[in-house]
Amino acid sequence: MTIYASPKRLIEVDLPIKRVSEHARREKSIRHGHISTLHVWWARRPLAACRTVICAALWPDPADEHCPASFVETARSEMTAWARDHASLASPESFKRFVAIQKNPHRLSDPNELRVALLDFIADFANWDNSNVREYLETSRALTQAAHEALGGTPGTRPLVVDPFAGGGAIPLEALRVGADAFASDLNPVAVLLNKVVLEYIPKYGQRLADEVRKWGDWIKKEAEKELDPLYPKDCDGAVPIAYLWARLIRCEGPACGAEVPLMRSLWLAKKGEESVALQIVRDHQRKRVDFKILRGAKPGDVGDGTMRKAAPTCPLCGYTTPNESIRKQMVEQHGGSSSARLVAVVTTRLGGGGRTYRLPVPQDAEAIREASARYAGLLASQRDGLSAIPNEAIPHERVWKNNPIRVHLYGMARWGDLFAPRQAVVLECLTRLVCNLRADSDVSAAVRTCLALAVSRQADYGSALCSWHVGGEKMRNTFGRQALPMVWDFAEVNPLSGMTGGFSGAMEWVADVCERGTELVGSGHATLSDAADHPLPTDCASAFITDPPYYDAVPYAKLSNFFYAWLRRMLGHTQPELFTETLLDGERECVVDEARGQDKSYFERKMVAALNEGRRVLDLKGIGMIVFAHKSTAGWEAQLSAMLEAGWTITASWPIDTEMGSRLRAVGSAALASSIHLVCRSRESLQDSSGPSVGDWRDILSELPRRIHDWIPRLAHEGIVGADAIFACLGPALEIFSRFARVEKASGEQVSLREYLEHVWAAIAREALATIFAGADATGFEEDARLTAMWLWTLRTADANGAEGERAAEEADDEDTASKKASGGGFVLEYDAARKIAQGLGAHLEDLATLVEVAGQSARLLPVAERARALFGKDEGRVVASRKKREPQMDLFKVLQDAEDSQASFGDAKVKSVRNTVLDRVHQSMILFAAGRGEALTRFLVEDGAGRDERFWQLAQALSALYPSISDEKRWVDGVMARKKALAL
């Protein structure tokens, strides 16, 4: 039995993860006043999740025998008052319980009832709508203060929550909200700037800051209009241009052609039913020129393809496709082509409404562009305060690797200023200069200038030549729709003075809204530039160490944030000099895997160990830690967990909270997590084991592991956590067993490594998940291919959606030859090591299943059923279908079956010959027959051949029906087969 130095916290006992996940998912669509609208930051945590885990980490469990009586008394009093006075604020899930408490307050004499009441309160408080409600704030702060003092905190002080990887500031912000003090640090100056606004300026100045931001933001807008109005002329009929659509240009290299080719993914301008609008190419062979006309009421059949496909443009005049290597060469000569692009269409609107209209460029557009180009040329040679007016800092020309998110330098964008078309750069220089010149009151000057600098930085996000036009929503898309800077061939330029999406007035208002909503914050917050591996705080000062560290190789923060840093440095170099000492952020000390810098897995582990050691140092012995992690690779998880154990942390609980959208790019077609796993931990020296040993017995741990996983998987399923989310969520309970010891030894005295233990963990998870998938059936009755297929599909269940982000990703995949690495034949992809571990846990080996699984590099692909057709019916008889250099088209079933008929059997008269004999093969054969419309053959296969008389056949078909993505062909086919069961009385 493990004895804690202080009572267990609520988060170490229970958490309402399903309800909190619902609030976290909903928060992704909330805009006004949300911290995410202050400025771009990558991999932000939902405030709902942060608020929940901070409350549950700071408040002790009233049912714990060591919980201080003073906290129990306060908690009982607060929950009684809540039920009496505020039950109407509760959610439907909590309302009945609080009404019952209202009728009988003595229910809370039961510590377990009191625990549930606190968890209900936390679940309701997670709702964004309640985050600034006075009653929730006052109650949560009273409980936080009571817990702090009951656990030994000095009366009158607040608990200190420390986050050394503060990023966008969600964790320290929520610490202030619930009544704690917060210390936020980060190695990235842009992150520190965001945290200064949230933790220091907003609590200090409140509504006054919001008012001053609006006041001086309006001043900047009016001054900018005086300079910039000639660059954005209104139409003769009074319509206001709100966006300009551009295409980069190349010269066709076809024989005797040399035409100027606009690079365009698509010709659509707006997709809105009968009012759709598109461009139509007009070919002028005599002048060797491509022109356009507007096609209103466009229908899909009327609109041709764009000129660009997979980074290879086809000339509309001669049909020649210029190779990608030549495209890059031409783009390099044009410094990316932002300055030499061609305006192809203008989007306008009328003030006061009337919708969008589309027109071709007119002479006044050309005149405005010429003037902007002239101004731009002058700015390129000018300086202010020793810095170029337009950022001329170099974009690192590093070699390309698989996770490199910045690819624009491959196309000649060598400097950060190259990412902006001339007029865009002129706008940003103007706004930057005005921020430097504003004269707010001295006591609030730094705060106002910082907030408006962030507004201009937001403008840069909507004002680069990497933005695009959303034809469905008829609005601007910003630069950072995802965590990357890919090449965009046809880009959109916003009119920053129009007041529409992407304009400066909107950017300023977003920032002011965040300031206004934060006026309810209390406590002391501090943000500083600091390396997490060398923390500035003294030892034993923190009540909680809660952080969301970098996710292995997921986001290279320094590389991406230089996009903003270059402009912010020009605005705030004098206001925040301590943050802008570097020319650019190099990321050399960043705790991420970066192959270009030689920062590999071992580097990540060393940096993370140092950071977590520092966290353990600053945390009081009675304090609690929590690490948030979400990564789809086993290598990433092993590195993070290894660092935690080596740094002396013991994991005491883990909770998955659904923090992502299934439609995001990384979720489509892969096992990307929808949940972030919150690993609760304590320093190992704060726990004493009653039996005394610091060395764990390997046999005891292996015997306890299956029981722990068996208890945890059903709980996760009940909370709606499945697939990859459930797999990684199980790592926490599994590590609770292993991490309580300084080392684990076998009977021989050999130390067990974390990697070896995790192999057993994966096996235990796979077996337990399989039992869940085949509930009511004996999973061991199926061959290894069926077990592996079922587990594989179960692992991918969180990636069953596609949406706006997936649509954008698909478009961007056409923008670069290297952007899309997905298997051309479809199928279901897992990281190879994850697939290998799953297979081993089920007693299978990938190399023995060559007609089912294709391994390529670091990925493994479960072949789509159609791709197995030849192996199951044809002459190949088990040869590796995936080994063919040119795969048969996935849906070309008729040809495959016809070949099979010619070679071995007639589906009209003879029985289907089964090449293999596993249950999965027979199910797949039946699906293929259904897909090919061979109804009679399918009936004979099920009845006469006896495939349908095997109960395992239908059990597996039922399981696969539940596991295949709802939009997949496989789902439709297997359901079609199952529909035959009743009709055939099987």
Question: What does this protein structure show overall?
Answer:
A 7-stranded mixed beta sheet has the order 18-3-2-19-20-22-21, sandwiched between helices. Strands 4, 5, 11, 12 and 17 form a 5-stranded antiparallel beta sheet that branches. The chain has 30 helices and 28 strands. The longest helix is centred in the N-terminal third of the chain and has 22 residues, at 207-228. The protein is an alpha+beta fold and 986 residues long. A hairpin with a 6-residue loop joins strand 6 and strand 7 (277-284).
Question: Which key phrases capture this entry?
Answer:
about 1000 residues; alpha+beta; 5-stranded antiparallel β-sheet; 30 helices; 28 strands
Give the strand line-up of the largest sheet. 18-3-2-19-20-22-21
- List how many beta strands DSSP finds: 28
Catalogue the unreliable spans.
Answer: 661-672, 799-807, 817-824, 876-891, 900-915
Assembly state here? single chain
The geometry reads as globular
Q: Radius of gyration over alpha carbons?
A: 31 Å
Mean of pLDDT: 87
Q: Give me the secondary-structure category.
A: alpha+beta
Count of helical regions? 30
- Bin the strand percentage: 5-15%
Amount of helix: 40-55%
